[in-house]
TrEMBL record:
Family: Belongs to the NAD(P)-dependent epimerase/dehydratase family. dTDP-glucose dehydratase subfamily.
Protein name: dTDP-glucose 4,6-dehydratase
All residue ranges annotated as the NAD(P)-binding domain in the record: 4-299
Annotated gene: rfbB
Alphabetic keyword roster: Lyase, NAD
Highest taxon in the source lineage: Bacteria
One Pfam family from the record: GDP_Man_Dehyd
EC number in record: 4.2.1.46
UniProt KW Metal-binding keyword: no
Cofactor(s) required for function per UniProt: NAD(+)
Entries under NCBIfam families matching the protein: dTDP_gluc_dehyt
Keyword Lipid metabolism: no
PANTHER family xrefs: DTDP-D-GLUCOSE 4,6-DEHYDRATASE-RELATED
Source organism of the structure: Candidatus Mycolicibacterium alkanivorans
Length: 331
């Protein structure tokens, strides 16, 4: 199989490429990535000799068309992904997430190529705290932020291209990922690298917001399961029953790093901050037989901390600039 992976130099995409090279020697991987601030060649260094990396933008229709024409399937991960950045400047999110997905859809339509579109649970908006409800495939779309609105728009384009043009596509909406190679602007790696650089962790508001954590390897095994056996036109929700509030996650990081549990700062809350995400992944488990492997969160968090400790070369050059950006916003 010739597989085109968009966004393969980002967090989830790079982990996907690593595991594909490791576990699927029959797959030849081409990565298309614009190498924005969120993508890096270094994340693909361990597999550099096993893949082809093309630096380019999704909005470059001719390039996308050429690469899609040479592929049997596309795993579409590329996107602008950070909610705080979207609040500060939504324009790149419209370009990459909406126009970029449109460009991929037109190319797969012309060439009859199978597409898997990677999306997020944030398209469903948020859930109340403390109620026993979860997102399912039939939850109505209700995005809150410029980021989630552009991901929702992309999902709707995919659904329309399936219905109108018979494009062979599936969609997955996954909960919050953690693991190696995640950009240090995101919650978990930001706190780990704050501690490793002598800074205090930063918690938005009271830390009561709940996220449903899944290890990136489990997200990616689900994506492969859908590519292999998913029903065309279907949406699958991916989650590993990992609900925790932000304060508990932060305290766990502090404990695993031998710090005082109160050694952190409360900072300005995010505008429009979604309260709670929670995924019911029953359909994926029952119909495609998928199950997560990383079921012990403390264990997964411990190995993620170890990865950041051992791979300072990968993140240290970014740290000052990321924190200066947050400081400007009072976060
Ligand atoms: P990331 O920000 O770490 O990586 C995104 C990658 O896409 C980067 O390498 C970047 O250079 C590339 N990119 C961005 N715009 C591009 C463009 N116009 N053309 C080509 N490449 C471009 O993101 P991530 O966390 O790895 O997320 C990957 C996908 O998974 C996204 O679609 C995201 O919405 C989705 N997702 C993420 C999470 C999460 O917790 N991180 C959860 C659910 C879904
Ligand atoms: O320093 C911080 N302090 C803090 O309390 C940061 C960066 C975040 N937070 C909070 C905000 C959220 O409630 O932690 C939670 C997680 O924040 P992010 O890592 O920014 O993730 P989130 O906004 O939940 O979105 C993530 O999951 C879904 C990804 O960034 C998205 O790309 C994905 O779609």
């Amino acid at each position: 199989m010739r597989l085109l992976v968009t966004g393969g130099a980002g967090f989830i995409g790079a982990n996907f490429v690593h595991s594909t090279v490791r576990e699927r020697p029959d797959v030849s991987v081409t990565v298309l990535d614009a190498l924005t601030y969120a993508g890096s060649r270094e994340s693909l260094a361990p597999v550099a000799d096993d893949i082809r990396l093309v630096e380019g933008d999704l909005a470059d229709e001719q390039l996308v068309e050429r690469l899609v024409a040479e592929s049997d399937a596309v795993a579409h991960f590329a996107a602008e992904t950070h909610v705080d950045n979207a609040l500060a400047d939504p324009a790149p999110f419209l370009r990459s997430n909406v126009i970029g997905t449109f460009s991929v859809l037109e190319a797969v339509r012309r060439h009859g190529v199978r597409l898997h579109h990677v999306s997020t649970d944030e398209v469903y908006g948020d859930l109340p705290l403390g109620e026993d409800v979860r997102f399912t495939e039939s939850t109505p779309y209700n995005p809150s932020s410029p980021y989630s609105a552009t991901k929702a728009s992309a999902d709707l384009l995919v659904r329309a291209w399936v219905r109108s043009y018979g494009v062979r596509a599936t969609i997955s909406n996954c909960s919050n990922n953690y693991g190696p190679y995640q950009h240090i602007e995101k919650f978990i790696p930001r706190q780990i690298t704050n501690i490793l650089t002598g800074r205090r962790p930063k918690l938005y508001g009271a830390g009561a917001n709940v996220r449903d954590w899944i290890h990136v390897e489990d997200h990616n095994s689900a994506v492969w399961r859908i590519l292999d056996g998913g029903e065309i036109g279907r949406t699958y929700l991916i989650g590993a029953d990992g609900e925790r509030d932000n304060l508990s996650v932060l305290r766990m990081i502090l404990q695993l790093m031998d710090r005082d549990p109160d050694d952190f700062d409360h900072v300005t809350d995010r505008a429009g901050h979604d309260l709670r995400y929670a995924i019911d992944s029953g359909a994926l488990r029952d119909e495609l037989g998928w199950a997560p492997k990383h079921t012990d969160f403390a264990d997964g968090l411990g190995s993620t901390i170890a990865w950041y400790r051992d791979n300072e070369w990968w993140w240290a050059p970014l740290k000052e600039r990321v924190e200066a950006g947050y400081a400007k916003r009072g976060q």
